[in-house]
Amino acid sequence: MPQQTSAVPNPDPESTDRPGRTLRRSSQVLRKSSRIALAGLLTIGVTAGATAGPAAAAGHAGPKNKPAPVVTRAGLDPALVADRGATVDFLEQEAENARTNGSVIGPDRTAYTLPSEASGRRAVKLLPGQYVEFVLPRAANAITVRYSIPDAPNGGGITAPLDVTVNGKARKTMTLTSEYAWLYNQYPFTNDPNADLLHSDWWITECSCVPAVTTPYPTISKPFRPMHFYDEQRLLLDRTYRAGDTVRLTAPVRSNAAWTVVDLLDSQLVAPPKVRLLAVNVRALGADPTGRRDSADAFDRAIAVAQRTRLKVYVPPGTYQVNRHIIVDNVTIEGAGNWYTIIKGRSVALDEPAPDGSVHTGVGFYGRDAADGGSRNVHLADFAISGDVRERIDTDQVNGIGGAMSDSTISRLHIRHTKVGIWFDGPMDNVRVTDNMIVDQIADALNFHTGVTNSVVHNNVIRNTGDDALAMWSERTANAGNTFSRNTIQSPTLANGIAIYGGRDNTVSGNLVADPVREGSGLHAGSRFGAEPFTGTLRFTDNTVVRAGTYELNWNIGLGAIWLYALDRDINADVRVTGDHYLDSTYNAIMLVSEWSVKDLWSITGVRFKDIRVDGTGTSVVSARVAGSASFENVDARNVGAVGVNNCGSFHFPPTGSEFTLVDLGGNDGGGTTGRWLAPWLLPNTITCDDRPPVVVPPAPAPW
Predict the structure, then answer these.
(1) Under a CB-based contact definition with an 8 Å cutoff, are residues 596 and 11 in contact?
(2) CA nearest 550: which of 579, 500, 510, 591?
């Protein structure tokens, strides 16, 4: 989502959309490199055995009579999402399916609870001394643990140990932290659990009032709206273990955390470090792989030499401290693999705000500003970026990747603890973002902002974003010809899995989106945030969305797994939704909606839904709260909790029927409590408006 107010406007008169602030590129300028002799600048030879990587020896068999491992994708049977989402080299196991002497929490889709932000809406809570134990489904030498531990009483987080053993041996201890979790209150949120309302002049659901003008002043419980509970950590094991071996995670008796919640474990076989001999090695230019000294200047020098010699920059295994932007242009930077090469930085307060409003800087690889021509031919691959962002300040340029980079590639990075993993400010053209993992962001994972064209985001895994996971925002200049394809998105704690704000000829295809929490849903197209209009085509094709159709806090209604929203202007482009699957939607599968204050100005017309499967809705298949029209062909539904179409139109309820028209193009089968979901009596525009229908919990998704 654009970095503005998190609140979606209330369609009732009490609340309207609120302007916010936008991100802008900083004017960071590359420091000039001194002249350096070329002798000795080729890569220092580093062998795989010279690092702390795992050996290849196989482990012994684990205990007998172990339960079979349950492998999932976004908390689902992988058969339900075949050929959708990212193809990855790890296997996911949910803690609630593992052996434990702790307690399973959830399911729960209520915002501000630990289960609601967990994958699959369930997790395992461990008290000190308790464990959860996973059986490896295939050989592995590395694990990733998604977890939550309590905040400090006054905010800021704590650290706590988690013991890891394999087959009862090879004990290692992970140090968990909540320093990058636990946000509170209203947008843009705070780390202080004891803070009063940040905006007492905003309407809030909790009292259905504007507190500042309410007498007596309502009682607001603290902490107010806790959220963003989870983090994750990776661990290389001492060696490679076989399928059937057991990994036990134990909250030790000595733990200072009152509880430890384990959500899931990913296990994988990590390859040895990559070595590139013919390259400019950052260590030869003074970079410190121990992380004790700042290496930013060494990176600048290496980039300058690589540009002159037309060589790549190689970053060997190690942790490199970088506390500012590294400006990249016409350069390739490769690490040894994102498990081995880690670029890590602190958040640094600026002496005075930058021209773009930034008050902090931090680790990030940035193209030149588009106004200065942008950067070209940038290729970043095979390293991790680990930031230090603990609060949301929208003017701050503290993103993992930023600026403008045309004709460029971003591949196989692991990005965490930045504000936005990748925020591109165009105009720019032809960037490919592939095979990355972006986790634990304060805001978006990736945003194409302003005039990004002919670009692809493919096969990425995204978890635990604090705003839209993937977004295209056509502010001032339209994004055009872009594709978001085959990405897996899990547990965005705010806003949407994938959001398109205006633009031309863009495609969202083959993605898997799971477990959005609030003020957004799975897939979204919105004429809002001052975006350019939708023109040409917009395609949503062959996506799967599960456990979406969320509760909208400000409207006090349920959204759709996919929802289209007309706020700033009409949506009348060629919008086609084909082949999507909407599974286990909390409220609706499909929603078309406008804001109450502009409902008589804007409409959504001509949207075409074809070859859709809807398996489980808490309420309706379609909720229409706007004037306009849509057609439906081969939309099959089952386990529908309410009337198939909740048609309110624009709420004038004229005797001629709703202002929203549905066109039945045939093959629309199945339904729920009221029979066929698109029955003839609903057509073309029967008013069936139930503003807040009761929710019927659907059964779990099953093979069609």
Answers:
(1) yes
(2) 591
Q: Which pair of structure tokens corresponds to residue 395?
A: 């003017």
Q: What is the pTM of this model?
A: 0.91
Instruction: Dig out the tokens for 40 from the structure.
Output: 């000795």
> What is residue 568's DSSP assignment?
S
**What's the whole-number mean pLDDT along residues 72-95?**
97
pLDDT at 554: 87
The answer to whether 253 touches 129, Cβ cutoff 8 Å, is yes
* 341: helix, strand or coil: strand
Helix-then-strand count for the chain, H and E? 1, 57
Structure tokens at 342: 């880690």
Rounded CA gap, 288 and 290, in Å? Answer: 5
Mean pLDDT of 420-443: 98
Helix (H, G, I), strand (E, B) or coil at 368: coil
Question: Over the stretch 576-614, which tens digit does the pLDDT of each residue have?
Answer: 999 999 999 999 999 999 999 999 999 999 999 999 999
pLDDT-derived band at 64, boundaries 50, 70, 90: low
CA distance 263 to 105: 10
How many residues appear in the chain? 704
User: Reduced to 3 DSSP states, what percent helix, strand and coil does the chain have, rounded to the nearest 5?
Assistant: 5, 40, 55
Q: Which of 691, 679, 687 is nearest to 660 (CA)?
A: 687
Which 3 state secondary structure label does DSSP give 331? strand
On whether the CB atoms of residues 32 and 544 are closer than 8 A, the answer is no
Tell me what the mean pLDDT of segment 40-50 comes to.
34
Q: Tell which residue, 328, 277, 288, has the closest CA to residue 304.
A: 328
- Cα dihedral 110, 114, 117, 123 sign: negative
What would the two tokens of residue 376 be? Answer: 């070209």
Return the higher-pLDDT residue of 675 and 465: 465
CA neighbor of 618 nearest in space, from 80, 226, 107, 118 = 107
What is the DSSP pairing of strand 446-449 with strand 99-100? unpaired
Task: Tell me which DSSP letter residue 580 carries.
Answer: -
Give the pairing of strands 622-625 and 588-594. Answer: parallel
- Specify the residue for token string 């946000």: 183
CA distances from 197 to 193, 218, 228, 401 (A): 11, 11, 18, 33
The CB density around residue 540, as the number of other CB atoms within 10 Å, is: 28
Residue 483: half-sphere exposure toward Cβ, Cα within 13 Å: 14
User: Residue 605's closest CA among 633, 573, 577?
Assistant: 573
> 428 is written with which tokens?
């720019």
CB 572 within 8 A of CB 603: yes
CB neighbours of residue 371 within 10 Å: 11
The strand ranges marked E within 476-570 are 483-485, 488-490, 498-501, 503-509, 512-514, 523-527, 534-541, 544-546, 551-552, 557-558, 560-566
Are residues 374 and 428 in contact, defined by beta-carbon separation less than 8 angstroms?
Answer: yes
